[in-house]
């Protein structure tokens, strides 16, 4: 794999070939959040042979980073530079090339009264781009039903807005591969990675908090006169309601849920919301909070582990247990009875070392949701010092064999789609 970090002209359409040259940073990281920021940062010494003079605003940088379960060359556009360390270093920040869509705007407002498929919603969004999307392509490979609503905003906001963006509404797995954007079903893919005490877990801290936990939801709307209305059933209970001393009630006004409010049908004609349609909006709003785990305690913590896939002894056994965005990871501590199975909702990638340095675990569609764990992997001296008996090795092999085999096809499917 070509791990060289190259710089290309701002207008280079495909960033193939040698480009303008190579940069040699002392540090280079990529951070990506599920359905959110995707940024490369680097620190380049201002010295002969480092290529620092190539790092100009708006130019493109190409580096090898994770894309799903694969490793691919991705394009990033420099948007900020800072000379620091007394003029000895230039620090750069570059956003993934898909952020060019921040400068593409939708030429018309769109709002559906009834739910439509995610595929249809994607077509509507892409067709609404002023002047077209150029070389960018949106691939929606899911059929979830949802209501859409956007104004005359830029494409990135329409896709990634933290409250009403397409990705969050559809609960889609967002994968960005240069100018191709994939929205995939929210199926859970188990990475096979298990971080377990007495095997590869070296440190674990866990905090739990019920301050923002609610088990009885009361969404409200308005009638035609602006008076408050409730669902016929008034409240919707979370599955965890019996786990607490009393119902934990949460009520809120749902935006846009008013009888008589005018909305646009799919054919462009106008209609006023009926009482039943307002009820549907209230139930949908409650379901979104339930999906985010509103009835469960908030958990947060840190996990440190040894990455066995990078050890000589276990490289073959753990080769398919690499983490990737949206993949599920298991953390276990038998001593305390702690067990967590959560998806990767964000990561930090060391471009120079070609490895993850940090993973964020939680709900990928709610900024971690009720569970947010940060993990870090240990390498080098920690790996060299690792010793394990044949009995432990055999036990590990037995525990992981099924997961590894089961995930070969799943991970292969992801790579094929990309």
SSE topology:
Elements: E1 6-8, E2 21-22, E3 27-33, E4 38-45, E5 60-67, E6 70-84, E7 89-96, E8 110-111, E9 116-117, H1 118-127, E10 137-140, E11 145-146, E12 149-150, H2 155-160, H3 166-170, E13 173-177, E14 180-184, E15 189-196, E16 201-209, E17 216-222, E18 228-230, E19 236-237, E20 249-258, E21 262-264, E22 270-272, H4 275-291, E23 298-306, E24 327-333, E25 338-350, E26 355-363, E27 368-378, H5 381-384, H6 390-417
Parallel strand pairs: 10-14, 15-24, 17-20, 23-27
Antiparallel strand pairs: 1-2, 1-5, 3-4, 3-25, 4-7, 5-6, 6-7, 8-12, 9-11, 13-14, 16-23, 17-18, 17-19, 21-22, 24-25, 25-26, 26-27
Main features:
single chain, 418 residues, alpha+beta, 14-stranded mixed beta sheet, four-stranded mixed beta sheet, 6 helices, 27 strands, globular, disordered C terminus
């Amino acid at each position: 794999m070509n791990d060289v970090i190259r710089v290309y002209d701002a207008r280079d359409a495909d960033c193939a070939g040698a480009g303008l040259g190579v940069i040699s940073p002392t540090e280079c990281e990529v951070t990506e959040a599920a359905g959110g920021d995707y940024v490369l940062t680097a620190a380049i010494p201002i010295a002969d042979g480092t290529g620092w003079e190539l790092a100009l605003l708006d130019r493109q940088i190409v580096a090898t980073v994770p894309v799903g379960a694969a490793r691919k060359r991705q394009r990033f556009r420099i948007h900020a530079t800072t000379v620091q360390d007394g003029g000895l270093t230039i620090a750069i920040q570059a956003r993934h090339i898909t952020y060019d869509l921040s400068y593409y705007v939708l030429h018309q407002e769109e709002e559906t009264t009834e739910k439509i498929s995610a595929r249809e919603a994607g077509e509507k969004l892409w067709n609404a781009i002023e002047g077209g999307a150029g070389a960018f392509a949106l691939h929606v490979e899911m059929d979830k039903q949802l209501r859409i609503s956007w104004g005359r905003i830029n494409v990135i906001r329409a896709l990634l807005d933290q409250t009403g963006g397409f990705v969050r509404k559809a609960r889609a797995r967002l994968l960005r591969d240069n100018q191709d954007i994939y929205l995939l079903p929210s199926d859970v893919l188990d990475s096979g990675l298990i971080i377990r005490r007495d095997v590869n877990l070296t440190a674990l801290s866990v905090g739990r908090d019920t301050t923002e936990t609610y088990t009885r939801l009361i969404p409200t709307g308005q009638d035609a006169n602006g008076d408050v209305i409730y669902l016929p059933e008034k409240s919707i209970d979370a599955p965890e309601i019996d786990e607490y001393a009393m119902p934990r009630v949460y009520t809120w006004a749902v935006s846009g849920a008013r009888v008589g409010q005018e909305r646009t049908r799919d054919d462009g004609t106008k209609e006023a919301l009926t009482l039943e349609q307002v009820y549907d909006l209230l139930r949908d709003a409650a379901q979104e909070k339930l999906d985010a785990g509103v009835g469960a305690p908030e958990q947060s913590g840190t996990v440190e582990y040894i990455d066995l896939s990078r050890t000589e002894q276990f490289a073959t056994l753990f080769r398919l247990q690499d983490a990737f965005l949206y993949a599920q990871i298991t953390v276990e501590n038998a001593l305390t009875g702690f067990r967590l199975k959560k998806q990767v909702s964000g990561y930090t990638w060391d471009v120079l070392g070609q490895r993850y340095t940090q993973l964020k675990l939680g709900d990928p569609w709610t900024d971690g949701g009720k569970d947010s764990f940060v993990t870090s992997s240990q390498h080098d001296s920690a790996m060299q010092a690792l010793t394990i008996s044949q009995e432990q090795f055999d036990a590990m092999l037995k525990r992981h064999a099924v997961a590894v085999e089961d995930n070969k096809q799943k991970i292969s499917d992801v790579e094929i789609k990309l």
